[in-house]
Structure formats: structure tokens, C-alpha cells
Amino acid sequence: DTVGFVLHSLLLVPYFSWQRSHAVHHSRTNHMEEGETHVPFTWDSVKGQANYALKEVLGPALWNVVNLFIHLVVGWPAYLISGATGGTKYGVTNHFWPIKPFSDGLFPTDFLKK
Predict the structure, then answer these.
(1) Which one of 40-44, 47-51, 54-58, 110-114 scores highest in mean pLDDT?
(2) How big is the CA angle at 28 (ends 48 and 100), to the nearest 5 degrees?
(3) From CA 37, how far away is CA 31, in angstroms rounded?
(4) pTM for this predicted structure
(5) Secretion signal: which residues (predicted)?
(6) Can the peptide bond before residue 101 be classed as cis, meaning omega within 30 degrees of 0?
(7) Is 73 in contact with 67 (CB distance < 8 Å)?
(8) Vertex 33 angle, CA 14 and 45, to 5°
(9) How many domains does the chain have?
(10) Which of 1-15, 47-61, 86-100 has the lowest mean pLDDT?
């Protein structure tokens, strides 16, 4: 935990909440509702259809550049602050403040003792 805490602190990523969400991510990878991160929009959702339409308009090369920018510059901070790319099961989460009013489903009470 010490090495992880130091390295994550250098990257400005909260270690203990990341440790928990990363474990959930690996246990629920590819689940469309319980996934923790990188959960794609479903085709029948408004966001899913808008995402597909934008991909068609931009073309493959520009879509990849835009998608990379969105993931790294917008998505990463949004994920840490609000769980923006997570599934619907956990609601709004926050890696910096993993207690209520944010979801306690992702960060159970025993976890908060760390």
C-alpha cells in the first residue's frame, strides 16, 4: 500500500479509492450496467445514437483523435470527480470524496476505514 500510495500521489490519483474502483472494474468488466469504467452507451439510448452519428460524420481517423482527446482530457477528470464513464449501478461517485452524498455502493463502509 505504501508504494501504491506514493506513486498514485505523484500522479494526483487518490490511491485507496482507486484501489477499490479498480477491483470492481476488473470484476465487472464488459457488464453493461455494473461496469465501473469505460461502459459504452447502449444503441437504444440517446447518447448511443448521438455517439454513432458523430462517428459517421467525422470518419474513422478524426473520430479516433477526438475520442482520444475526450478520454484523456475530459473523461479522466470527469471519471475521478463524478464517475462519468461508469455504469448506472453506482450512480455518481467521487474518488476524492468517496462518502455521501456520493454513492456508497462503490465504496462500502469497511473500505472507508483504510
Answers:
(1) 54-58
(2) 85
(3) 10
(4) 0.56
(5) 1-23
(6) yes
(7) no
(8) 115
(9) 1
(10) 86-100
Q: How far is CA 29 from CA 59, 108, 111, in A?
A: 28, 19, 21
Please indicate whether residue 28 or residue 66 has the higher confidence score (pLDDT): 66
Please state, rounded to an integer, the average pLDDT across all residues of the chain.
78
Domain containing residue 10: 2-113
According to the 3-state scheme, what is the secondary structure of the chain?
A: CHHHHHHHHHCCCCHHHHHHHHHHHHHCCCCCCCCCCCCCCCCCCHHHHHHHHHHHHHCHHHHHHHHHHHHHHHHHHHHHHHCCCCCCCCCCCCCCCCCCCCCCCCCCCCHHHC
Distances (CA, A) of 84 to 32, 69, 108: 14, 15, 19
More confident residue, 18 or 54: 54
More reliable by pLDDT, 11 or 86: 11
Residues 19-26 have a mean pLDDT of: 78
